[in-house]
Amino acid sequence: MIDKIYEIIEPSDEDGSKFSSVYDCIMLVSIVASMIPLVTKSDKPVFTIIDHVTVVIFILDYLLRLLTAKQKLNKGVKSYFLYPFQPMAIVDLLSILPSLIPINAGFKALRLLRIIRTLKVFRSLKIFRYSTNIRRLIKVLNRQTKSLMAVLSMALFYVFFTAIIMFNIEPGTFNNFFEAVYWAGISLTSVGYGDIIPVSTVGRMFTMLSAFVGVAIIALPSGIITAGYLEVLTEEKSKKDDE
Predict the structure, then answer these.
(1) What does the alpha-carbon distance between residue 148 and residue 157 come to, in Å, rounded to a whole number?
(2) CB count, 10 Å around CB of 162?
(3) Total-model pTM
(4) Mind listing the pLDDT tens digit for each residue in 8-56?
(5) Helix, strand, or coil here: 135?
């Protein structure tokens, strides 16, 4: 019985049963519905009902996953104690707790209310479990971790390198080194808010060069992820063809 429940609730990259597909659809709809009260400031009863219904579904999902922890982790009885500390289990718990915290209506805890409302945003992370494309993207990121970390290291080095140069070229433009790092980060992504700008000719020429190099660095992760994504799609297609 528990094995059957596990097959239904656990998403798979392969074609699952109809019950599993229906369960995934129910959870996806519930996740999207649970976000509706967060995009409005209205306190109409319908939004409270939506929140209560979706949180009940999330609680049932969490209990079913805790019940099938042994099948998922394969560590015997310890699985039931280890599962609550899994990343997605923590996300599940954080998406449930805000709706279960009682607040006295007469107690004006606006800051607490805002924190609780913000925590409900964690519900959107639950979609990572049920979206095939997102799971595929996570697989790509795991495979390309070394390459992406190398690009990140290059970007961080470039930010600090250009920040040091600009901090010394235009000491009057920046009040402290952090502002220079902020400027370098914005220039690297070619956003350019315009709140901090170079005023000297040398500073502007260096800014132009920095922007050109920054565009090249920012483009690298896109190519790495695209190549990895195509590789995963090719592997999945090959598996289907073999079957």
Answers:
(1) 14
(2) 23
(3) 0.62
(4) 887 655 555 678 888 888 888 998 898 888 777 777 889 889 988 998 9
(5) helix
